[in-house]
Amino acid sequence: MTAQPGGPEDRLRRFATIWSRAVFPVTSTSSTRPEFEEQLLPLARRLSAALRARGFDADEARAVGAALVDSHCTDPEALARTLDCVDAYLVLYCGEDGDPEDLRARSARLQHAMAAGFAGALRARTLAEQEAIAQAALKAQGVVAEALHASEARFRAVFEGAAIGIGIADLDGNILQVNGALTRMFGITERTMRGRRVREWSHPDDAPQTWRLYEELVRGEREHYHVEKAFYRPDGTVLWTNLTVSLLRDADGTPQYQLALMEDTTERRLLNLRLRYEATHDALTGLPNRSFFFERLEKALNAGPGQRFGLCYLDLDGFKAVNDSLGHAAGDRLLVEVADRLQSCATAPGEMVARLGGDEFVALTTGPDTRHEVDELAGRIMNALHAPISVDGRELTVRGSIGIVEGPAGERSPAEVLRSADITMYRAKSAGGNRFELADPEADARVITRHGLTTALPAALERGEFFIEYQPLVHLGDGSVRGAEALVRWLHPQHGVLGPDRFIPLAERTGLIVPLGRWVLEQSVRQARLWRERYGGATSAGPLRINVNLSPCQLTHPGLVQDTVDILERTGVAPDALCLEVTESALIGADDDLLKPLRRLAEMGVDIALDDFGTGYSNLANLRRLPVSVLKLDRSFTQSMQRFPADPVDLKIVEGIVSLAHSLDLTVTVEGVETGAQAEQLRILGCDTAQGWYYARPGPPERLHELALVDATA
């Protein structure tokens, strides 16, 4: 296949070329370098596919590592150079799409898997060599009586020429013979080694079964055993080996010697430890990363009866502002300093600190009593962040919000614990930040329910789960029904009927309020048309009008005016049949750009109502510049009128607002009317229309029709 310059195949071949140039000098292959490059090309293609695959497949990377051994890349230096190439160039040449951080993390996991595959294949190859050597040794010993000289020569050739260490000892543990590879591994002479006994080679890291297996072998109870074993060299360094010990018997089957075969695995072990460290620690701060933290958390949650855990979930307050103003390099230095301070807070047994990503950190404490310990840990963290941090000559004040989860082991999964801590942390941040909060199961349930509603909103609109109820607007002078306010409801499959206070804020945060509001507007206008067609003359005041609420998000949407015009034209409804309600708080400090769409709608004949008047700054002077024709007085002004006598101060306030509104040619509507006395008092004060449970609760459109007919026949 011809590789297009700069294309994926071309980049893949360039990666294979770099790989072959790095590794070829330390291979024992008889191929030329171009031939060796062609052998590496399919391995590079498999690595590229594994890097970009949807799911991570460690088996594919292990297979690549094993294939290196098959290609005669058995020198440990070949593995080191391969991993260096993969670390430096795989993402660069084969990761053109995707998140760089995710690709680098996946590349590190691929390297770990490759090293494991390489080690496994090399171990299998070594064991095969060991078996061949052992068989040769046995064969040599077995034919001593027939051809001692020939077999001795054959055995000596294998013994001295082997790449692995070989030693022979008697059953008392006296070392009789060693080959050159073994003396080089230990860094001592053959004479020094032959003067020692097997039992002297113990090490503190020996597995418990190591010397039990040895005793069974010298007693003739087993033929061989295989263990991973460490030895001390004379200079104090540690030699790690794969050790196979076999029992050699004479012609009569009597145990006579023990044969030890050793493969030096020190470099490979160090490499695995390094890869393990890189895979489980954050590259920037050196703290344990998310995967390592989850391992520790899962272990803590499975600790058994009587054990508890405490977790602090920390998010820095205002960290984004540091990145945006000083740059990401300064933000990274800030994170490093924060990590150092947090690390100094978790020094007791059972405590650890990890970085989850970005500016999010976690601290974990475990033990039989973590109720007080986790509070103290959170306090130490807050104190550690108190002192300013110097970055690029600037003194930065660092604050953080912490969510704390504490409880017994065995009751929750790591994901549930972290979710609760995350929710609690955001509760602390919403309360102003620079504080910590304790997890509250009820608050968690509310947040989870709210999240479920948020994710279900788009599909709910598509499935038609929303419906509209209408609450009549009644004229206080003659009691006639003048129209209705459209109030959207959600018929949720699990939670039943939900009021707008449960889902409108969620729709505003997600942007779904725009299509939802458009749907409410169109359905309400269509209903107004039906009212006007069927019962237009049913009320003494003429056709009914529909009031529809506009959220602040809809108010700033560029398609508001055009959507409204299109809906009115499609339904054939005149603009004067529609009143759009905007809350007072949405118009506080509004500039001309924000008011422009409302002015255009008002010029068309659409009424604009200022809803919830009195809940904002109640800036009466500001009313003159707003394109409103209706003032909806908030129920908080009229609640005292449900009692007799009414508060005279409230009466004066309402009377003043009504007088001012009428002087500005505004009509006044009152919300929350619940008693006849309240309605009568508002009528005396000069209010124009009212709505509330005294007249009717929100209901289906037929309910409004019935009220209108009653009014018309009264």
What is the overall pLDDT average? 85
Q: β content, as a range?
A: 15-25%
Largest sheet: 8 strands, mixed, barrel
**How many β-strands, per DSSP?**
21
Radius of gyration: 40 Å
Instruction: Provide the structure class.
Output: alpha/beta
With helices defined by DSSP (H or I, 4 residues minimum), what is the helix count? 24
Low-confidence stretches: 537-541
* Shape annotation: elongated
Distance between the termini: 89 Å
How are the strands ordered across the major sheet?
A: 13-14-16-17-18-19-20-21
- Helix content range of the residues, please? 40-55%
Protein name: Cyclic Di-GMP phosphodiesterase RmdA
InterPro entries: Biofilm_reg_signaling, EAL_dom, EAL_sf, GGDEF_dom, Nucleotide_cyclase, PAC, PAS, PAS-assoc_C
Structure commentary:
- Residues 225-277 form the PAC domain.
- Residues 450-712 form the EAL domain.
- Residues 307-441 form the GGDEF domain.
- Pfam families: EAL, GGDEF, PAS_4.
- InterPro entries: Biofilm_reg_signaling, EAL_dom, EAL_sf, GGDEF_dom, Nucleotide_cyclase, PAC, PAS, PAS-assoc_C.
- With 714 residues, this protein is of the alpha/beta class.
- 50% of the residues lie in helices and 20% in strands.
- The chain has 24 helices and 21 strands.
- The protein has an eight-stranded mixed β-barrel with strand order 13-14-16-17-18-19-20-21, surrounded by five helices. A five-stranded antiparallel sheet has the order 2-1-5-4-3, sandwiched between helices. Strands 7-8-6-11-12 form a five-stranded mixed sheet, sandwiched between helices.
- A hairpin with a 5-residue loop joins β13 (466-475) and β14 (481-492).
- α5 runs antiparallel to α6, α12 (319-326) runs antiparallel to α13 and α13 packs across α14.
- The longest helix is centred in the first third of the chain and has 43 residues, at 100-142.
- The radius of gyration is 40 Å and the shape is elongated.
- The N and C termini lie far apart (89 Å).
- 34% of the residues are buried.
- Mean pLDDT is 85; it is low at 537-541.
